[in-house]
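Two proteins were folded this term; both appear here.
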Amino acid sequence: MAIDADTLASDTAALVAIPSVTGSELAVLERLAELAAGLGLDAQLHEYDLAALRAHPDHPGEEAARHDLFGVTVMLPGSKEGPRLALDGHIDVVAPGGEGWRLGPWSGAVEDGYVHGRGALDMKGAVVAALHAMAAARDRNRGEVVLHAVASEEDGGLGTFAALERDARFDACLIPEPTGFDVVCAQAGALTFSGEVRGRGAHAAMRLEGESAIDAYVGVHAALAEHERSVNADVQHPLMRDLELPYPLSVGRIEGGEWSSSVPDRVSFEGRLGVRLGETLEEAADALRAALAGHPVELRFTGARFASGQTPPDHPFAALVRAAASAEAGHDVAVAGVSYGADMRLFCERGIPCVMCGTPGMELAHAVDERVAVSDLARLSRTIARVIEGFGA
């Protein structure tokens, strides 16, 4: 089916050129709505009640500073009797970091068959691919198709949560995260945690008079590593069992000490805990608390709260997406699980079958010189169009 790769590349580049680090997404959403209108699609910009969402008992957590929350809904009408298909993709991105980018993080340059810049892969290009798929499948869809272009995925999923609070009447959902064209039917969860270890300060020359918080943290770190081994010792789900490390536990920030000649009296740290399929967030948190029992640490769970999520690989919708992706690939694509949290679980929690399928290149997500192949975006767009056409058949 006809997908104009050049226009797909230029539309992706237009979004990449607009910085949209989590917490500041309005400008790129407004540009996205313009692109949708240019394709003849009905796009609506929504502002959500941030205070009400934060007060909601199922609020999924946040980590970035935020004063407002916007999203765009793009509609492809269908018959009133037909099913409703959701497409979902985020346009917020992580910061470019301190490394030097060859073409700049916001260049949106199209070079050697790639669109370059932060968000090209994760996942502005995929959102544009979904837009073009909707336009290509116009008049061949049996039911209504709704694309949610959302903010705040990177820090917990508040954008998709808000969109589903507004409208969750869907029969299935496809999220085109970068999966290497595998059809992802299982995603791990993740909890952000922080901790503080206290010691007793002293002059370094009188080290024995103090209690080093750094020394105490070493034991905490070893306990965290042992807990990761325990969580991954007997993985039951077959798709997760295939992964090298299904449920990672990582400490991403440590801070301690104030002076080289002082015994440090405090260490603070932050990390991410993998949550197993079938395990509640509370059960995962309690297990980590138990693993650190007996260590001098105050543990808190702050920020993002990604539950796990899964759709049976033999579900008809998973089979439809796999058939569409396989037809474009020329061979059977794999069914897979992933070790990261995603918005997929927000649909699964509401009983909406949801899978992920998108371009290769996950190793470039959040990395310097992020980029996506234009040919892969075109293939993804054709795959999504096939799903739209086959949905409800």
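Next, the second protein.
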Amino acid sequence: MRWRAQLKETCQRRGHGSQPVRLSRVLTRLGRGAGFFSFRLAPIPFLLVTSFLLFTECRAQENPVFKIDENITRFAYSAGGRIAYATRHLFSAKKIQLQRDDIWVAEMDGKRRRILLGEKFVRGTGPFSYTVRGMRWSPDGSKLAIELGTSEMINDDGDTREGVMTLLLDDSGREITIPGADSVIPGATNAAWSKDGVSVVYLTEQGQANKQAPSAAAGKALSNPASSSTAPSNPQTNSPADKLFMTNRVRPFVEGASALFQGHLFSAVAWSLKQDGGVGVEHDPGATATSRLVALDLARETPRVLATLEGYAGGLTISPSGKRVAYWIDNEQLEVREIDAPNRIARARVALGTLAWSADESRVLVKRGAALRSGGLVWIALPPLVAGAAGAAPAAAEVAPQSILHDLEFRQFDISPDGKFLGVVEPGKRNLLVYPIV
């Protein structure tokens, strides 16, 4: 329709992040078209409907409601609406360039405070770097689990070792120390606080058993940087089966680490904080071609098989209610399954990417492409889940992606737990922008 095309042209000229176009201005401009609009002939209901559609179309042009002008490496929403974020911090020590990210918390009133100065966070005796690869709040919003990609120089020739560890902090920046050990869990990735905030569950790579138990030397996890810089690189989080992981638990206020679901290996796990459980993609030792989707009960420590998967390409994510799970079975098909009734399933033809759920779980927001590269954001309306016979699956539904924010690309994104706000990190300077979700 002509008015919609004119509206799109008007909105686009306003540019990314501009205020909504005033309806009076748009209506005046549209009214100049011959025979398009006549206040003498147009019924009032049509005018109201048109005005509503115009307003809805232009909502995507709104200014961000919140902005942080920093070089942000990672961020995470708390259930209460606060944002924890890491900023890049480079400095030199003995002619060696080091990176140790700072950790900040942005309050709901806009105030910000740094809770960790990376330059003063030291592990080991040699030159040591880290970058924040992931952050997760405890359900009550009082503690953080922060995943660090690390690097340490191990000799005078400049050789380095790379690794990963998880740092435990409270929201004031105090380190949470594990009894008889440190505030970091060496080798720990994808860590999450339990519902009661007493324990932390996490993954360790198969073959890294010697790094499971926290120790006083926990900081010696390490990277292989270029030249004399010891800035670690990020992992490719969409790579599904090149590594297998074991599950573990530690109770920082009570005891050290212990293994969970012994004898079971996973290529991916998504934790559900509300249910104190999760969902994993399990592989038999020595037979990684077989993938099973399993529900994980942390209390009983027994996995429950939901389905044998045709394949797994990445993106394992649990919905906000903890009742549904989504994942890609290949590079073009997204599968959604009900956890308590795993025969209820839906498939949609969606290119592989990274996703986040809407609050009502009727749609998902997908960043297209590799997880660690910038990509455009699109809403995908999910087809209804239908019950099928055991081993059967519906055909993939064709869905029309709805682009947002002018098809601009972003490095990271996340939806707030209440589903009302979208946070995005711009490529380049990496500012954090927060938009209302419409």
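Confidence is low (pLDDT under 50) at residues 1-61, 209-240. The first strand starts at residue 66 and ends at 68. These notes refer to the second protein only.
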